[in-house]
């Protein structure tokens, strides 16, 4: 099942809104059960850890402005590079600056899911 750039950009936009509002139901539906994500501090984050941080209110987003830099599609998989201008708090600590994310999306029978990614602070 080949996916289109438009599908990827659409789900990325929905993901941004879900992160801002801590939409656990949506996040649960698009994060792969065995997700592996590397945070800016080098910590490996799982789906459960990500969802738990939203449930506990540990991640509060005040601003999340995306700039899509690249979308590469290989059949049923997409690699997205996006820079977010971010402001908020994580575990009570302020987070502010630009962060470059790499996200890997894969098409499954029930839709696109993030299977992996990483994040790096630019400024």
Ordered list of secondary-structure elements with their pairings:
Blueprint: H1 5-21, H2 24-30, E1 31-38, E2 44-45, H3 47-55, E3 59-74, E4 77-90, E5 93-108, E6 111-121
Parallel strand pairs: 1-6
Antiparallel strand pairs: 1-2, 3-4, 4-5, 5-6
Radius of gyration: 14 Å
Q: What CATH architecture label applies?
A: Roll
Straight-line distance between termini:
38 Å
Helical run tally: 3
Order of helices and strands: HHEEHEEEE
Spans of at least 5 consecutive residues whose pLDDT stays below 50 are none
- Give the overall shape, derived from the CA principal axes: globular
Helix/sheet category = alpha+beta
Which bin fits the share of residues in helices?
A: 25-40%
Strand coverage percent:
over 45%
Number of domains: 1
CATH domain class name: Alpha Beta
Q: The biggest beta sheet, please?
A: 6 strands, mixed
Summed over residues and divided by their number, the pLDDT gives a mean of: 93
Strand neighbour order, sheet with most strands: 2-1-6-5-4-3
CATH topology: Nuclear Transport Factor 2, Chain: A
Number of strands: 6
């Amino acid at each position: 099942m080949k996916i289109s750039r438009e599908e990827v950009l659409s789900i990325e936009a929905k993901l941004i809104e879900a992160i801002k509002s801590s939409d656990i139901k949506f996040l649960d539906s698009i994060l792969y059960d065995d997700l592996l994500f590397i945070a800016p501090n080098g910590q490996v984050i799982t789906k459960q850890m990500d969802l738990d941080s939203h449930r506990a209110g540990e991640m509060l987003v005040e601003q999340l402005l995306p700039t899509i830099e690249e979308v590469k599609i290989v059949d049923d998989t997409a690699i997205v590079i996006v820079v977010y201008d971010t402001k908020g708090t994580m575990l009570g600590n302020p987070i502010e600056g630009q962060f470059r994310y790499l996200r890997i999306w894969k098409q499954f029978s029930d839709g696109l899911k993030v299977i992996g990614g990483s994040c790096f602070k630019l400024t």
